[in-house]
């Protein structure tokens, strides 16, 4: 009924940190990512090569990329918005490049200062160059269910963006519930359409947990055979261009669910807890994950 193995991408060092006002020291980020590398997680999005003015917390992406200890069993990826970002990311070292855009015109414009039409050729070039450099490329599509500015987004608008990214050569698609509004019926409606077009192993679900629906949405996605999810340690995070949105579903909570269901991930829950406590301590505030809070209380 459910997949036997679920592949988790840890996005805490990127999505988790990008909205944090308190700067985390570069050396601490490196130690933290090294802890994550040692947890058994197969992929880590370690930072973002966007304009440092927009996301100052991640302006040390290059140094982080250069100094983290690479575990050969981990795929290290980073977010890249354009050619300049890709050049910097390639220099710093990446196994995978994550390009990103939105299904909603207004969110796309606020997030990357371009219309959807203007974004396609920019990402098209990045995808081509990244593939030429032998990298895997993930295409993030944001606001696949709801947009903070435009409201409900139709599956057709999501499909249009997905089709273009696939045509341009991305290896897979990560579908973002950017503001964490979706309920399982929305996930069903979108997956029904997407699975008519793409194999299930090409689809990754990226749920933010703003309203506590992410675990229910992951269950629904697994009913459709989806076995790849993005999550953030401790539930850290949010999108700077999606007011009020909170972090991704917590890796700790996803692991609690999957371990309970007997689904393998290859990840040691205890190591994820230690890494969550490490960053919680550096940020000086409690992270939202309930499983983490419970473990700390024991
Ligand atoms: P722009 O101002 O339109 O860029 O920004 P531009 O191409 O016109 O260039 C302007 C200046 O920026 C130039 O410098 C460029 O060199 C420089 P100047 O010549 O004026 O000195 N520049 C750069 N510098 C460093 N790194 C770069 C870069 N690119 C240009 N990569 C841009 C366009 C996309 C760069 C900007 O809008 C930006 O950085 N946006 C950041 C958006 C962001 O990080 N959002 C959060 C991540 S997305 C997300 O969280 C959603 C996701 O999690 C999925 C979900 O939850 O739905 C993925
Ligand atoms: Mg996100």
UniProtKB/TrEMBL annotation:
CDD domains: DRE_TIM_HMGL. Keywords: Lyase, Metal-binding. Belongs to the HMG-CoA lyase family. Gene3D superfamilies: Aldolase class I. One of its GO terms (biological process) is L-leucine catabolic process. The keyword Protein transport does not apply. Residues 6-273 form the Pyruvate carboxyltransferase domain. InterPro entries: Aldolase_TIM, HMGL, PYR_CT. It comes from the Bacteria. This is Hydroxymethylglutaryl-CoA lyase. The keyword Lyase applies.
């Amino acid at each position: 009924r459910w997949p036997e193995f679920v592949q988790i991408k840890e996005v805490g060092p990127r999505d988790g940190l990008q909205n944090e006002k308190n700067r985390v020291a570069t050396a601490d980020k490196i130690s933290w990512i090294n802890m994550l590398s040692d947890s058994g997680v197969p992929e880590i999005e370690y930072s973002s090569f966007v304009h440092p003015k927009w996301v100052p917390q991640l302006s040390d992406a290059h140094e982080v990329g250069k100094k983290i200890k690479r575990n050969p069993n981990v795929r290290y990826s980073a977010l890249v918005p354009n050619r300049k970002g890709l050049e910097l990311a390639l220099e710093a070292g990446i196994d995978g490049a994550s390009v990103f855009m939105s299904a909603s015109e207004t969110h796309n414009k606020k997030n990357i200062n371009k219309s959807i039409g203007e974004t396609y050729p920019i990402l098209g070039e990045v995808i081509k160059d990244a593939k030429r450099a032998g990298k895997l490329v993930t295409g993030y599509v944001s606001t696949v269910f709801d947009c903070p500015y435009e409201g409900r987004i139709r599956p057709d608008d999501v499909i249009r963006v997905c089709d273009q990214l696939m045509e341009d050569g991305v290896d897979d698609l990560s579908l973002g519930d950017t503001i964490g509004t979706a309920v399982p019926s929305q996930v069903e409606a979108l997956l029904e359409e997407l699975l008519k077009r793409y194999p299930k192993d090409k689809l990754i679900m990226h749920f933010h947990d703003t309203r506590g629906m992410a675990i229910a949405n992951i269950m629904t996605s697994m009913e459709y055979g989806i076995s790849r999810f993005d999550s953030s340690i401790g539930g850290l995070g949010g999108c700077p261009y999606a007011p009020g949105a909170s972090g991704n579903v917590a890796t700790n909570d996803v692991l609690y669910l999957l371990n309970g269901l007997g689904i393998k991930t290859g990840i040691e829950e205890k190591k994820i807890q230690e890494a969550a406590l490490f960053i919680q301590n550096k940020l000086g505030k409690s992270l939202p994950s309930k499983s983490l809070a419970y473990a700390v209380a024991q």
